[in-house]
Amino acid sequence: MYLTVKETAEYLDMDEQYIQKLILTKRIRALFDGEQYLINKEQFNTHKEQVEKYRELIQQILNEPIPEDIDVKDED
């Protein structure tokens, strides 16, 4: 499914001008149909999956219990 720059900005929750900049610097693949850029929505799936995995990892770290005694001393 192809999206316009405006639709892509809404989908990614970013500014339209930033999306244009990413297209012009070839960080986002896009087709120009003579009037506007069209962006394939599928190219963002991997990115969204990685972000979701990272959020889950952070949540696991935050949910890890704090040790009872943080003043553990070495018994040398």
TrEMBL record:
The keyword DNA-binding applies. InterPro entries: HTH_17, SinI_DNA-bd. One of its GO terms (molecular function) is DNA binding. Keywords: DNA-binding. Residues 2-50 form the Helix-turn-helix domain. It comes from the Bacteria. This is Excisionase family DNA-binding protein. It comes from Aquibacillus koreensis. The lineage of its organism: Bacteria, Bacillati, Bacillota, Bacilli, Bacillales.
